[in-house]
Design brief:
This protein is α/β, with parallel strands linked by helices. The protein contains 6 helices and 6 strands. It has a 6-stranded mixed β-sheet.
Length: 184
């Protein structure tokens, strides 16, 4: 009996959102697509968030992924950058949750480790390894799309493992894991 599923990987960003899709047939990966949403021409941060949400829904409605893997924001010194990245990730997650698609977050180091065996690998090293793994003819100029693809591949490799990252199966699960009661 053949089993098949599609995994959408997202590298959220407010300048470039990278994404990639793989199809898993009988526990074997097949490359479907990778691309990026270019947002640098938009000045309004809310327009960017709206476009991220809409593009994520469009990908979901076109490819019908069974699961979404998303790169978690890394902790940096620039609080404003972290806030923007968190918002971008949040709207992409909201799009998936609105369609009841399970979402798993992966730290950047975990994704790099899954692809290259080195949690400190460069974007170029990750892209080259994906090119070899999936038989990609060429690599894009911006490597944000390969980062999105790497999230999907990382999810494939971590399937069935108990401790993969934060997972959400819908709004209820998201609120249960992230909601905090406010004392009055």
């Amino acid at each position: 009996m053949s089993t098949e599923k599609i995994i959408l990987g997202i590298d959220p960003g407010t300048t470039i959102m990278g994404f990639g899709l793989i199809k898993v047939v009988n526990k074997k990966m097949q490359f479907v697509q990778m691309n990026e949403l270019l947002l640098q021409k938009y000045d309004d941060p809310y327009t960017k968030l709206k476009l991220i949400f809409e593009r994520t829904l469009e990908l979901i409605d076109t490819y019908h992924p069974d699961e979404i893997a998303i790169e978690a924001p890394f902790f940096g010194k620039n609080v404003q950058s972290m806030l923007k990245l968190g918002r971008a990730q949040g709207v992409a997650m909201a799009a998936g949750l609105s369609r009841q698609i399970p979402i798993t977050e992966y730290l950047p180091k975990k994704i790099k480790m899954a692809i290259t065996g080195n949690g400190n690998a460069s974007k170029e090293q990750v892209a080259k390894m994906l090119q070899n793994m999936l038989g990609l003819k060429s690599l894009p100029k911006n490597l944000d799309s390969t980062d999105g693809l790497a999230a999907a591949v990382c999810h494939f490799y971590n399937e069935g493992r108990v401790e993969v990252g934060k997972s959400y199966s819908g709004w209820d699960a998201f609120v249960k894991q992230n909601g905090k009661r406010v004392k009055k």
